[in-house]
Amino acid sequence: MTPETLPESARLKIELMFDGVRWSESLGAAAEHAFPNFYPYRFSPEEQRETGRDKATIPYLMTLSDETLIRVKGTAGAPWQVVGDREQGYRLRHDDGRDLAIDFAPLPAWMQATTDDGLPLAQAGVSLHGDMAVINIAPGCEFFLHRGDEGDSLRCTFCAYGAPNERVKHYDQRIGESALSPRAVARMQQALAAALAEGGVRHLYLVGGSMSDWDQEGARFVELARAVQAVNDHRVPVACGSGALPDARLDELHGEGLVDQVCFNLEVWSEALFARVCPGKERFVGYGNWLRALEQAVTRFGAGNVYTAMVAGIELEPEHGMDWEQAAALAVRGAGDLCARGAIPVYSLYWPTGGRDHPDYFSRLLHYFEALNLGYARIRREQGVRISERFLTHRAAYMQLECDIDRAEASHV
Ligand code: SF4
Which of 87, 104, 121 is the last residue of a domain? Predict the structure, then answer.
């Protein structure tokens, strides 16, 4: 690669993010031993006539032979398909003749066991993204329950996963209270201990729905981190993926050695966009406080241990009135500013829901995402910023390109 082009693995990853993979018997067979996708494959009318089915489970993540991790996106009519089988090996084939060896992230044995009280361990609040275990036993986000001046919910506009639905009951989560359910904690600890004992988990990431009181949210993450460390015998690195937290909670998390990194997701750059895209975060914490909390975290955890996830592409929603060049320029400016503060952004591709009928929709999004990743790679190079392998690597980042780009650059030095 040159500094102005993306490396091969990153380009392929983008291509598959956009194109997806069409149905094949091999893809269906892989689902029997692979970690299952949260989204089933939905057959097109033509495929329904051929298969007699309307949907099917497919694998969640595939890996290339260089370990690049890619989410499996089932798309009828995609130019890619999976061929082969478990014994001979799977291959990813494009209609233009490209043919690559792949494998699928497996369903680990621990996920097929149950807790002492009979719950499948797979439902105990520990999930896997490659070599990262994500822990979430309080998924309901209070921002969904608050209303803004126009009567709209204060949830982040892109978020569906924080809805306080039946999962709140599943984990005995009490809205408005920071304390975790002892039963949910015990089940999570059993699942996590089993996952760590089986091997392959290299990072732990704590997440949960937000609370309208950031101090209470901090109390919840302190309790969660203590519970996690109680079974983390080999001290696998732990990241706190809460909302921004006040200083006293940072002191607890750092002073007690409960977490190694924090990741307070700002989601978008610029106060105006933040207020529109994340009205709950703006109302209950505020943009200025969010940035200050990231800076305060740097003073405690040190450079390289403070992160913020960003939703790349939401700027292209029609109501924000930006073309892709303006959106990419704003995002790159934000990346430079955040890095200068010591907070390292990580960008996940977002699919805008508006404007999809526009003829050049995909091309704008693609150009934006490439320009952002190239611009941000330049900033990392110039400022000497490195994403810590203790936080995120190419083995877990399935919707982000930074680790693939940095890895390719390092191999050319
Ligand atoms: S803070 Fe925003 S992104 Fe996080 S769970 Fe709540 S609504 Fe979703």
Answer: 104
Check residue 3 and give its pLDDT.
55
What pLDDT score was predicted for residue 360?
A: 85
Distance from chain centroid for Cα 79: 26
Q: 176 and 132 in one domain?
A: yes
77 and 142 together in one domain: no
Residue 1 lies in a domain: no
Residues 283 and 191 in one domain: yes
**Do the beta carbons of residue 350 and residue 314 sit within 8 Å?**
yes
Please name the residue whose Cα sits nearest to atom 5 of ligand 1.
162
Measured from the CA of 155, which atom of ligand 1 is nearest?
7
What range does the domain containing 150 cover?
A: 110-411
pTM (two decimals): 0.94
* Residues with C-beta less than 6 Å from any ligand 1 atom: 141, 143, 155-156, 159, 162, 209-210, 280
Contact between 298 and 254 (Cβ < 8 Å)? no
What's the chain's Rg over C-alpha atoms?
A: 21
Tell me: do 67 and 196 sit in the same domain: no
In testing the pocket of ligand 1, which one of 142, 159, 212 has its CB within 8 Å of the most ligand atoms?
159
Q: Per the domain annotation, does 2 fall within a domain?
A: no
Number of structural domains in the chain: 2
User: Does 266 fall in a domain?
Assistant: yes
Token pair, residue 15, equals: 């291509």
Does residue 380 form part of some domain?
yes
The position carrying tokens 């329950």 is 145
Query: From CA 172, how far away is CA 410, in angstroms rounded?
Result: 46
Q: Which pLDDT score is estimated for 409?
A: 84
Determine the residue of 141, 146, 273, 278 to mutate for testing ligand 1's pocket, defined as the one with the most ligand atoms within 8 A of the Cβ atom: 141
Residues (pLDDT < 50) of the chain are: 1
Token pair, residue 336, equals 């430079």
Q: CB neighbours (10 Å) of residue 386?
A: 13
Q: Whose CA is nearest to atom 1 of ligand 1?
A: 210
